[in-house]
Structures are given as structure tokens and as C-alpha cells.
Design a protein that fits this description.
- It is built from two helices and seven strands; from the N terminus they run H-E-E-E-E-H-E-E-E.
- It is α+β, with helices and mostly antiparallel strands.
- It has a four-stranded antiparallel β-sheet with strand order 1-2-7-6, with no helix packed on it. A three-stranded antiparallel β-sheet has the order 3-4-5, with no helix packed on it.
- It starts with 13 loop residues before the first helix and ends in a 16-residue tail after the last strand.
């Protein structure tokens, strides 16, 4: 009597894993998933007339005093932190809280940016940081001498 060997399909579990991965991505992309993505303020960065760099940060709910702008070694840093009053903490009992109380943005400035002359203003929840460009030296033409 011959012994029968049972054949196990080595790829048998793949379809199960694939289904689990599909379910996971469907859950991540569905609107029913609780959004835990930070409420990082959006930032637009552009140049105006090639004379300055402008960064505009949409920071509704923040005040001018909640935001700090600094430039250090060619890097622009923008920090925001809402200061909740002690009385507000006691009154609120959150069921869901999706708002963020702080943010941090960092950007390496182009070499022609003048970090010493940065200007920042805050109006209606929009922070506008203006970094002027330095006048870069023009290329110097080098005369080529004859070797004779």
C-alpha cells in the first residue's frame, strides 16, 4: 500500500494576506476612519519679482502671540503653540478632539536669501513671512592670456 503524501500549496496564505492588506487600505482611505492626521497649517512658498521669498502660513485659531518665527544658519523656522487658558481647560469635556495645539514648519532658505532682513506679519489667521534676496555678485569675466 502506497503512502499518500498530502500536497500543501505554499501560496495558500497569500490570498488571505492580500485580502487583509486590501481591507487595511480601504479602512485608511474611507471617510469612516477617524482622522488622526495633524491639523498642520498649510504653507505656500513663492517668490515675488525674484527679489524676495514669501511664505504664507494659514493658521486660523492662532494669534500673533502664539507664533514664533526665527532664522538660523539659513533655515527658516515657524512654530505655533496655542495657549489654552486655565479656565477653558476646566469647562471643556471633549468627546472628539481633532484640533492641534501646536505646529512646527522648517525650510532651508536659498543661498541668496538675506536672513538678517526677514519681516513677518500676521493678519486674519495668515502669517506672512518675507525674506528679501541679497544682490549676488555678478560673474567676473577672466581674460585669457596667451602662453607665448
Amino acid at each position: 500500500m502506497a503512502d499518500l503524501m498530502r500536497f500543501r500549496d505554499p501560496l495558500r496564505g497569500i490570498s488571505s494576506i492580500q485580502r487583509q492588506m486590501d481591507d487595511m487600505f480601504d479602512n485608511l482611505m474611507s471617510r469612516n476612519w477617524p482622522v488622526a492626521v495633524g491639523n498642520m497649517p498649510t504653507m505656500d512658498v513663492y517668490t515675488e519679482d525674484d527679489k524676495q521669498l514669501v511664505a504664507e502660513v494659514q493658521a486660523p485659531g492662532y494669534s500673533k502671540d502664539d507664533i514664533e518665527v526665527s532664522v538660523h544658519e539659513g533655515v527658516l523656522e515657524i512654530r505655533g503653540e496655542k495657549q489654552e487658558k486655565e479656565g477653558d481647560k476646566k469647562k471643556k469635556s471633549y468627546m472628539v478632539q481633532e484640533s492641534s495645539s501646536s505646529f512646527y514648519r522648517r525650510m532651508v532658505l536659498p543661498r541668496q536669501a538675506d536672513g538678517d532682513k526677514v519681516d513677518a506679519s500676521f493678519d486674519n489667521g495668515v502669517l506672512k513671512v518675507v525674506v528679501p534676496f541679497k544682490e549676488l555678485p555678478k560673474p567676473k569675466k577672466v581674460n585669457i592670456k596667451s602662453s607665448k
